[in-house]
Amino acid sequence: MGERAFTDEATEQDLQRMKREVREAIRAGAIGFTTSRTRNHQTPDGNPVASRLANWEEVRELVSAMGEMKAGIFEIAGEDTGTDPERIQDYLNRLKALAVDHKVPVTYGMFSSRRVPDYWRPFFNLADDTEAAGGRMFIQVHSRSLNLVYSFESAMPFDRLPVWRDIRKLPLAEQEAALRNPEMRRKLVAAVSSEPRNHQTPVGAEPRGVNYKWLFVMDKASPPHRSVAEIADEQHKDPTDVVIDLALAKGMKQFFLQPLANENQDHVLQMMKHPKSVVTFSDSGAHVSQIMDSSLQTHVLSYWVRDKQALTLEQAVRMLTLVPATQWGLKGRGLLREGNAADVTVFNPDTVAATLPQVEHDLPAGARRLKQKANGFLASVVNGQVVLRNNEHTGALPGQLLRGPLASK
C-alpha cells in the first residue's frame, strides 16, 4: 500500500494481495502471521504503525487465509482496551472467534500490573474458554518484571529536562566532572524536584518520569533490589543526590531498574504455571538499548528454582524446552529422545545465574546496546555440535532455519 498504509484502510484489492502474501509465506515455511494494535508501536515521527489503522475485518481475513491452509499461528500485540469491561470483553470475544472460527492458534503476551493487578486474569480464562469451544490459544509470559534499564552510559529518566539534556550530550568523563561540581549538582537536583508531572506519556521503551519508589538500584542481576527512595530515607538525602552518589561511586557505570509493568511476583508465578502459558515473552530484541529481559529462562532456573524453590528443576526444564516447542509446533524438539533434534544445554543448577549487563557500542554506526551474559552454562549443543563452551563461541555453525509445517510440501 505504500504511504496509503498510514492514512487509509485497505481496499479489497489490497486485502486480496495481502492474503496472497500470507499464503506464500506460510508455504515457504513461515511459522505464522503477527500484527500489532498497541499504542506502544509507533513510527519514528510518533504516528501509529500501519497495522494500528487496519480494521478488524482485515485481521480476520488474513487469519482466515491461514485457516484455509490449516497451517500457521496468529500472534498479536494487543489492543489498548484500558480497564473498561465492555471494551475488554469485546476484544476477548474477537480473539476467541479467530481461534474457534478459523481453527488457527492465537497467541499474545501478557503481564500483570501494579495499577490493575487482576487485568491478566480474563485473558487466561479466555484461553481456557477457547479450548472448550474447540479452538487453541496460548499466552506468552515473563518470568520476572519487564524492566527499563538506566545508566549514565545509556539513558536516564531525567534526560529530557533542559539542564540535564545539556549535560547528557557531553562525553561521559565530562558528565562525571559536572556531577562532581557542587553548583552544577544543585541545579541538576533542583531540575528533577521541579519536574512537571503533566508531561507527555511515554510509549514503549522511552524513559519514564522519575518515581524513586519504583526506581531500583541494580547491584545484582536478580531481585530483591532496594529502591532509591528507601536509600534516600535512610541517608536523609534527596533521592536525586543518591542516584548521583551511586553513579559516581561506580565510575558512572551503576545500573538502575524501573519496572514497566510492576508485576506482582505471586501473579508472575501463577501465570508461568498456567497450562496455556509459555515463558518466552521478551522485548529485548526490539529494544536492545533500554530493555533487558533476554535472561528470562536463566531467571527461571536461578530465582524460581534455586532461590525461591517454587518450581522443581524438572518442572523448570520442561517449561523452557518441551512447552515452547509444543506450543509453537516445532516437531522433534524439547525432549531428549532418539530421532529428535540434538539441541542440548548443559548447565550447573547450583551456579546458573544472569550477570550484570554491560553497555556496548557495537551496533551499526556505533549505536549502543545492553549486553548480558550468564554464569553456570557449560555448553550449548546444536544439531550434535558444540557451539558454546563456557560462554565462548566455538566457531561451529550447525544451526538451521526453523520452518513451518508446509515448508517441505
Structure description:
The protein has 409 residues and is α/β, with parallel strands linked by helices. The protein has 13 helices and 16 strands. The chain has two domains: 2-145 and 262-330, TIM Barrel (Alpha-Beta Barrel), CATH 3.20.20.140; 147-259, no CATH class. Helices cover 35% and strands 15% of the residues. A five-stranded parallel β-sheet has the order 1-2-3-4-8. It has a four-stranded antiparallel β-sheet with strand order 9-14-15-16, with no helix packed on it. β11 (358-360) and β12 form a beta hairpin. The longest helix is centred in the first third of the chain and has 18 residues, at 85-102. The mean pLDDT is 90.
Count every beta strand, where a strand is a DSSP E run of 2 or more residues: 16
Biggest sheet, spatial arrangement of strands: 1-2-3-4-8
User: Measured on Cα atoms, how large is the radius of gyration?
Assistant: 23 Å
Order of helices and strands: HEHEHEHEEHHHEHHEHEHHHEEEEEEEE
CATH C-level of the largest domain = Alpha Beta
**Biggest sheet descriptor:** 5 strands, parallel
Global geometry: globular
Name the beta content range: 5-15%
Could you name the key traits of this structure?
16 strands; five-stranded parallel sheet; 13 helices; 35% helix; alpha/beta; TIM Barrel; single chain; four-stranded antiparallel sheet; 409 residues; globular
What's the arrangement of secondary structure elements?
Elements: H1 12-28, E1 32-36, H2 56-69, E2 73-77, H3 85-102, E3 106-109, H4 121-132, E4 137-141, E5 147-150, H5 162-168, H6 172-180, H7 182-193, E6 216-218, H8 228-235, H9 239-249, E7 255-259, H10 265-273, E8 277-279, H11 296-307, H12 313-320, H13 322-327, E9 344-347, E10 353-354, E11 358-360, E12 369-371, E13 374-375, E14 377-382, E15 385-389, E16 392-393
Parallel strand pairs: 1-2, 2-3, 3-4, 4-8
Antiparallel strand pairs: 5-7, 6-7, 9-14, 10-13, 11-12, 14-15, 15-16
Helix pairs in contact: 1-2, 3-4, 8-9, 11-12
